[in-house]
Amino acid sequence: MKITVVGTGYVGLVAGACLAEFGLNICCLDKDAGKIALLNSGKIHIHEPGLQELVQHNLSAGRLKFSTDSSNLDWADVLIIAVGTPQSDDGSADLSFLNGAISDIATHAKTDKTIMIKSTVPLGTAKMVSDKLKLLAPMLNFDIISNPEFLREGSAVRDFLEPDRVVIGYNTSKAKEVAANIYKPLSSKGIPITYTKNTTAELIKYAANSYLAMRIAFINEIADICEEVDADIEEVADGIGQDKRIGRHYLRAGPGYGGSCFPKDTLALNYAAEKIGTPSKLVQATILSNELRKEKMADKILNNLKSGNTVAIMGLTFKADTDDLRDSPSIPIIKTLIEKGCKIIAYDPCIKILCEPFIHENITLATSIEEAVEKADIVAFVTEWNEFQLLDPKIFINNMKNPLVVDYRNIFDPFIMKNLGVKYISVGRKNA
Ligand code: UDX
């Protein structure tokens, strides 16, 4: 089977490389010639553990190619759509890249194709794609699979190769058969495949992301309560997470969720639900709770600082093991601190050059943890990078005049910090 993946962002590149690893013949198509040249040289444009090795392995095995040539839309039997569906101003998903891909397919396809939609798309998109192709290329037949992707940045390769489940929405028996063949290497290992209608598959993706986001917003609100009543959020999360009906995943309190999916997908589900007259109060509350949280996170620093002080921000990305800054909690924290007259020295294991929205005369980038700590009046951990988790807290004692640490990810032990004489503020736990 030959497959062309349209779009080489996170989802497209990971899907292309992993499907090649299954033994399928894959072309990853993108309009960005620079990106394609880089990929053909075996290098990748994103930070994703294990992905570059997988790309190199499958390039040299001859199963994976990268191209800007639209004739690959006809070369393949299956076309996977993995283009971005960014957020529009009204909260809905912007489908212009998807619509562009559909027009390209209608222009270049000369034989019947199976279209697999991996992009996160609004409810009813599979039908819209089918209707549109019937109009644009009436002589051809297109079967439509909705196959939402659940991979997380930072563990995307493992998530693709060893998923909890695969969700397949289909509109014809041929679509179902094609999807079953593509995922045979996973189903033969016992990984469950859910077959359903296209719209159900589309909703599963929005519902899964919104539910996870809701759990995070919930545990963050419980963390706020903990701070007021001298309870410990880590113990609360353990105590409720040990209930098998609840589980411990996605109950890590922190500075609020960010990234390319949770903020966008909760807004998109909210938009869709409102539009059809069934607004979701829980999704709305999740969005609001997370927005308010991110806005007030800088207070933990400001309550302990004077204007003109220097704050070391440890971690700019929205979580560890990614170079992605989209909707990162570090953005509102730094913005507020700058407005209050603070100077920022940032350090991130993956960000080596300051870019927007961090370009400002009062923001500099340190090349090491030590350099950032030395120059700071207060050190704030915003991302839970391994490098920070392995840090000896004595570094604060040795390098700071009045050691003051704000830990938004509960990386350190409050008792150790107290014993060391560090003023320590974390999330949902008593301050040391
Ligand atoms: C998410 C979904 O998990 C994935 O299934 C989907 O395909 C894409 O969106 P991702 O955005 O890569 O993946 O990151 P994830 O690890 O889920 O974290 C999202 C945000 O929630 C991050 O800001 C993270 O720091 C935060 N988070 C996560 C918490 O604050 N607490 C938690 O317990 C878990």
Brief write-up:
45% of the residues are buried. The protein has 432 residues and is an alpha/beta fold.
Overall description:
The protein has 432 residues and is an alpha/beta fold. It has helices at residues 10-21, 33-40, 51-60, 72-75, 96-108, 125-136, 156-161, 173-182, 184-187, 198-229, 233-241, 262-275, 281-296, 299-302, 330-339, 369-374, 386-389, 394-399, 414-420, and strands at 2-6, 25-29, 64-67, 78-81, 113-117, 142-146, 166-170, 193-196, 310-314, 343-347, 363-365, 378-381, 404-407, 423-425. The strands form 2 sheets. It has an 8-stranded mixed sheet, sandwiched between helices. Strands 11-10-9-12-13-14 form a 6-stranded parallel sheet, sandwiched between helices. Helix 1 (10-21) packs across helix 3 (51-60) and helix 10 (198-229) crosses helix 12. The N and C termini lie far apart (60 Å). The model has no long low-confidence stretch (mean pLDDT 95). The structure holds uridine-5'-diphosphate-xylopyranose (UDX). Uridine-5'-diphosphate-xylopyranose binds at residues 149-153, 209, 212, 216, 250-252, 254, 257-259, 261-262, 318-319.
